[in-house]
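Students often ask what a holo structure prediction actually looks like on paper. The answer is less mysterious than it sounds. You provide the chain, you provide the ligand, and the output is a string of discrete structure tokens encoding the 3D arrangement of the protein together with magnesium ion.
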Amino acid sequence: MGRLHPEPEHHLRTPFQRDRDRLIHSTAFRRLEYKTQVFVNHEGDYYRTRLTHTLEVVQVARSLARFLRLNEDLAEAMALAHDLGHTPFGHSVEEVLDEWMSDSGGFEHNAQGLRCVDLLETPYPDFSGLNLTYEVRSIFTKKASMSELTRKGYASPKSTRFVSGPARPILEAQVVDLADGIAYNSHDIDDGIKSGLLTPEVLSEASLWKEIWKHARGADESAKRHAAVRELINRQVTDAAEETERRLHSGPPSPAPKPREGEYPPLASLERVVDFSAPMKQAESELKALLRTKLYRHPQVTRKMDRARRMVRDLLEMYFAHPEQMAAQFRARVDHEPVKRVVSDYVAGMTDRFAEDEHLAFFFPGALVARPR
Ligand code: MG
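The corresponding structure tokens follow.
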């Protein structure tokens, strides 16, 4: 469906390959290395960050896309982009931003992802944004309606076609969405056990894990864990591939409801094509529920998240009162844009460690900030 600013095609690379390359070279992508997935960056070099999570999503999405004979380059580009709008320290800080922005449209990471690729990245002289294809951008609109996006601060002069998602997310977007869940269920189990916050026994309350753990073989606990996590990914990917192929062969899905005036029904209300079989879906939600109560709500995790929330609240108030403390390209925007939205963009783009350093520098002036500034 093209790009907002028309460009001649490249004679060697397809449009989706070019989008992939633009994403890899973007600032927001490099910052994923220092953004929390579940474990805060400085807790250990072993744990997943948002960057390694993204790479695992890319890998699963490409496997599924290739097997289903979808556009692998498109799926790859979408997977690389899917988490660009996340704040430092993950979901709990996203809630802080949404609360803080509640009188100014709110905050949501998919809408923020769209702001990143359309407005905040500025590698080109003639327009802001990466000028990605409509199809790749639709990874951000897969869950939101036009009015939701506008409310969440995606005020864009661009045409509706370039803001709203398709009536039903295209298959590659559905693949990435599913791959996202497969990747984080598996790596959160891996990191959770490694960190000692979870045990294989506790996880065995979920039938799928119980069954896999029973048959996992390894010379020691850690080898056994690797084998089990590998098997968990394998089972989920294989199930999704086979179930989706079965659905594709059993005829077209029932037509998606017709959009009214730029209003699209949310993904949850639509019949999905790319999905698990019913038993795997059941097993997967069991695992997810267990991870929620035993890992994401573990006191050691929530303690760090509470600390991060307080830190980010301080920073938001501080930049709002002193916009001159932001980086130059953000300072320049406050004359012609609402200060709150500029501050929200600035803080949302931060890495965990940059936010921590800024907080130390402003609120604990006696503390040494080790990294060069
Ligand atoms: Mg993700």
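The chain has two domains: 1-6+13-298, 301-367.
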